Amino acid sequence: MILSLLLAAAQSAAAPALVAPPEDPAYKNCIAKVQTAPEQAVEHASDWRVQGGGLAARQCLGLAYVALERWQDAALAYEQGARDAAAMKNPAAADFWAQSGNAWLAMNDAARAKTAFDAALTVEGTVPALRGEIHLDRARADVARGDLVAARVDVDQALTLVAEDPFAWYLSAALADRQNDAVRAASDIAKAVELAPDDADVLLQAGTIAGKAGKEDEARAYYERAAKADPNGPAGRAAAAALGGPGEE
């Protein structure tokens, strides 16, 4: 279960920080195509890159491939963007490496994902919040590789950098649960619930952890909240199923 939890975030493969002014006509045009016609966006971004679109064109190309779920192409596009940014000593290299890693994770290549996240963490000038998120990314790659010890190191480093991110505590709790550390799992999921009291995924995990600890009333309460928070989503359906109602097929 933890592997699906830790890999879930990779599927969105969010965009790197902006490398072009959002009002830039070329950038706006390319992003619009990503949202409405991603195949055309691939062609547009490729042409724009050849014409000197630079990092913004690389970013748009990666986003277009993500929209098409062409994960390997996205990973390679982001990787080239990272190398271009590094050659210019632009800190956006960290963002590009991170997104390359997320794309590799989305296609279940954890080894290449870890290599990308390793590279992201070597970029100088990366703000602490981004470093924290990259450590969380690398923790997902660690888990996918079966290295829970390394995953714990990365998650703990992330918690020192992004302590207000409920997803960090959620991942930490899921990892502690996998490592049979019930005390840590309960403590960390409680923090995640405190920070994100209406997040169905967090509430579902809280219910699961409470149930494993034999706290049936607490587990039921969390499942009820999760089902109410997202009745049509996967977490809400799973919570409903745990309560004995209609859930996931």
Largest sheet: none
CATH class categorisation: Mainly Alpha
CATH architecture call? Alpha Horseshoe
The CATH superfamily is known as Tetratricopeptide repeat domain
The total number of structural domains is 1
Into which percentage range does the β-strand content fall? under 5%
Instruction: Give the termini distance in whole angstroms.
Output: 16 Å
Structural class: mainly alpha
Number of helices: 13
Tell me roughly what share of residues is in helical segments.
over 70%
Inertia-based shape = globular
Gyration radius, rounded: 19 Å
Low-confidence stretches: 1-16
Mean pLDDT score, rounded?
Answer: 90
CATH topology: Serine Threonine Protein Phosphatase 5, Tetratricopeptide repeat
Give me the strand/helix succession: HHHHHHHHHHHHH
Number of strands: 0
